[in-house]
Amino acid sequence: MNRPFTARAMRANWHAAALAGVAAEAVSDGHGDADDALSHCIDANEIPVRASATMLSCIAKYDRRYRCEFDRIVPLLLDSIRVGVDKPDSDCRHLANSAHSIVVLNCEGGRPVLDLIANAAERRIVEFDVTSLSTIAWAYVTSAIPSSERLLRAIARAAVPKLTESNSRSLSTLAWAFAKSGLRADTMFQAIAEASVPKLDQFSCQSLSTMVWSFATLNVPAPRLFQGVANLAARKLDDFSSLQLSNLLWAFVRANEQDEILLHSISVAVTARIHEFTPQGLYSVAWAFAR
């Protein structure tokens, strides 16, 4: 733990935002100093959303065993986001990251802050890039907030003209969020398919399986996408986990995109790795081959 650095920062008469940055840096080295640093801030509510989002993100990535060390910090960060969510300097990326971290941490008292972020995001949805749109969609679907449907519809509208500039992770996360919610957004899904096909070689195995699972779950046809995934996946099945294999197989059968070469290759891979599959995974495989 970098105690001398933190101690020097503590002795300095810095603005709250600067101290927040020091606290966030302390998180990467250990725990405890961040709590001390923030407690010396004159007014935690003066910390900008940018700093609060950074700190929450650090804590969310921290070893679960020690997250309790930050119990005094999190309520102050939530309060700073609450009062700062509508300020001009609250960047959309930081709003999205704040929502993501609040959900990951399952923060006590986080729901009212999520509601405020959702309202702000709806008003400013055109300012979000696709990465932030996918991040905030993931957060609100994972949190299962009933009122999030209006936000998701706004996300779907805002995403369409921006999808060609997106990366594979954002595309697959966005598709997953809508499939998980059960909310159809066919125009956005067709745009996702069109944006994904030219860059499928950039997709991880996780993103490939997530993408076709999402389209199959919502019964959105995308023949070119499925064909592209089939061609790519058949060459690298050894890189797929057992869960990814079962999801891939389920998706192709469910979507009636039964590429014979891919299905045969998956059956060989499943047989060779049968011991890796969970009961749920085996059920999905059995269901698919029984169709």
From TrEMBL:
Q: Does the keyword Transmembrane helix apply?
A: no
- Keyword Mitochondrion attached: yes
Annotated signal peptide: none
GO CC term, one of those recorded = ribonucleoprotein granule
GO biological process terms, alphabetically, are: mitochondrial RNA processing; regulation of mitochondrial mRNA stability
Q: What is this protein called?
A: RNA-editing substrate-binding complex 6 protein domain-containing protein
One Pfam family it belongs to: RESC6
GO molecular function annotation = RNA binding
Q: What top-level branch of life does the organism fall under?
A: Eukaryota
Q: Any idea where the RNA-editing substrate-binding complex 6 protein domain is?
A: 119-291
| The entry's keywords | Mitochondrion
